[in-house]
Amino acid sequence: MENTKGKRLTKKDRPNPINEEIIIPDDQVLISVTDPKGIIIEANDIFVQVSGYNEDELIGSSHNIIRHPDMPKIMFKIVWDHIMDKENVMAVVKNLAKDGKYYWVVTDFVTRVDADRNIINYTAYRRPVADKVKQAVIPLYKALCAIEEVAGMDAAERFLNHYFDDRDTNYDDMVEEIIVKNCDKAAVLGFGDNVEGTMKEMSKEKKQSLFNKLFGVK
Ligand SMILES: Cc1cc2nc3c(=O)[nH]c(=O)nc-3n(C[C@H](O)[C@H](O)[C@H](O)COP(=O)(O)O)c2cc1C
User: CA 47 to CA 54: how far, in whole Å?
Assistant: First the structure.
């Protein structure tokens, strides 16, 4: 899969997945930056290394080259709806490496804007995910993929909206809940046993700093 000059990788270049996981070291943050269309314009060393592509293959390529088929389309619609609205958003994502292996990450998507609020670029900060978080999202993602296959993404969106209504929640709160409820590190970091109760009373900034502590962003 040579990325000779002018040949940029797209989803047609994606490898066949194999059932082998790449474990990301706890202290690593995999970063990539895209232009407003989702074309990769920057990637840090650890992102390049884990992806299996070389930097030259990644830069200029569409970010969907690392999309894993186990990821529901609706999750990326939610991400794009948020970031195009200049709202940051988090998602638990299973990604596909060049050799077909997979890796799980929790990703913060951040939109950068200029003084006139025009979008300059998007940055993704990815950290490793606790096993319990993966176990919490796998059944939901399986259900969403199955619905998408038989009835399309709109049906999956309706399913997800019912899922939120039944639980009296929304996407952002669900992600927080899944991560905090299932992350043993919260207690270790001194947030005690009642992390959920504490979260409810936290400001957005405090929550961000909690996530930074949980996932090791400096
Ligand atoms: C900054 C940024 C980072 C992204 N990172 C990923 C990623 O790690 N994995 C992924 O599958 N899609 C990622 N995407 C979303 C892709 O652009 C794309 O929407 C997704 O892979 C689904 O593509 P498809 O519907 O064309 O198959 C990212 C998008 C942006 C803007």
Answer: 10
Q: Which residues line ligand 1 (CB under 6 A)?
A: 11, 32, 34, 38, 63-64, 66-67, 71, 73, 76, 93, 95, 109, 122-124
Tell me how far apart the alpha carbons of residues 16 and 70 are, in angstroms, rounded to a whole number: 12
In angstroms, the CA 197 to CA 212 distance is: 19
Check: CB of residue 102 under 8 Å from CB of residue 73: no
Q: Residue holding tokens 């606790």?
A: 130
Rounded CA-CA distance 166/24 in Å is: 34
pLDDT tens-place string over residues 114-161: 999 999 999 999 999 888 889 889 999 999 999 999 999 999 999 999
- φ, ψ of residue 72 in degrees (nearest 5): -65, 145
And the tokens for 65?
């080259």
| Domains, the chain | 11-215 (3.30.450.20)
- The SS3 call for residue 103 is strand
Nearest Cα to 179, choosing from 147, 151, 215, 205? 215
